[in-house]
Every structure is written in structure tokens, then in C-alpha cells.
Mitochondrial inner membrane protease ATP23
Amino acid sequence: MEQGEAAPPAAEGKEGEEEDDFGYRLFPDRNKKPQSFLVRSLFTFHNRCQLMLRMTLDTNPYAQLLLEAMKQSGCTVFNDRHFSCENCDGCVSGGFDSATSQIVLCQNNIRHQSHMNRVVTHELIHAFDHCRAHVDWFKNVKHLACSEIRAANLSGDCTLMNEIARFKFGLKGHHQTCVRDRAIRSILAVRKVSKETAEKAVDEVFDACFNDLEPFGRIPHSKTDAKRAYKDFQNRDRYNANL
């Protein structure tokens, strides 16, 4: 999660089960009655969020690949149904709500287009995992850890430029370190578990989930990589048909 993208509906199981709010405290608008279109249209944050979302869905190769992969998996994404621009806690940028199959975009915290691109991509990876696998977000912290590892690895969260912007530098293995750290942070943001529990869950599934590159087929370290991955994905069926 990028300071952060969070998945509110997943939970740790028995540890702290009675007190765990599943991370919904970070998304206060989730429990409010939806505002009318007229009321929402008066708020600049909401309008800006909708415009940036549309730009991402129309032009960003990371998002376009994920949308097409979900459609092929039988989970077509619709803008009005599966995305919601809302006000959130100051520490998060977005989240995937598995209870409603909806991506929450924090309109008060997403300030520029590149940030929107990254948040949408991160949450679409959670949505893709939710579509293709039987993810137990509520009770299995390893499932949450796996999806967070994949989201950090494939969304561009840990690109060199993003890490430099965070004043984090590293040499060999830095990408893996970034992915691990961000996955742990994501779990701690939305689950009432100890740091040791989060670290153990991430470490136990790290290799398998880090190497699961679907639907990209590669780690897209840049938009150019994402464009190539998108083109390759579009050609998969054609190449298979010619075998």
C-alpha cells in the first residue's frame, strides 16, 4: 500500500478479532448515505478525482491491462459501479472493499495524475486477485500479504523514481526490499496484528507471490514496460491459437 493503499475488508482471524474494524476506520465515507449528484458536484475534490480517474482508465497502460485481464476473467469493471471517490483518513490514498467489489479512491489525498495512476493500478491488482482466486481477506492474513506483495511489485509503487522521491536508496535487491516493506506497512495499516505477525506472513509467502507476475508477465518498472506487457497480453490468445 502506498501510504497508503489499503484493503479494508481483509482481516487477521482470531487475533484481535473482536476489536478489529477491518480497516474501515480509514474510510469514514463507507458507512455514510451516498450524497446526491448535485451535492457531490459542488465539491472540487470529487470532480477532480473523477476527471483523474477517467484519464487513468483511458490512457494508463497498467490500468488498461488489468481492466482487460479482469474482463477476460469474467469480472468486467464499470466506472460508476466499481470506483468510488470518497474522503478518507489522512494516511491513505485508496482501498479495495471486497464486500462490495469496489475500489475507494481518496479524493482528499490524491493530488496529481501520476498518484492516481499508481493508486488505481494498486487497487486493481487487489481486484484482479479477488476475481481470479478464492482470497480469504477476512481470516487469512497470508492471503492479504500475498496480494499486497503483488500490488507493491507490479503497480509501480517501488520504481526507482518513487523510491528516490521517498529519499530511499539502495543497490542490489532494493526492489525486493521495497516490496516487502510496503506489504508489511499495508497489513499493519488495516489489520490489528503485531508487526511480527505481519512480517511472518509476508516472509512465508514472499517468494511465490513476488514471482507471480499475472497478468503482466513481467515486472513493469516503467510505463514503457507496462505498454509492452499490455501489447503482449493482447497477443496471447493469437499466439496460442497459432500453435
In short: The radius of gyration is 17 Å. The chain has a mean pLDDT of 83. Residues 36 and 231 are 40 Å apart (CA to CA). The chain has two domains: 22-134, 137-219.
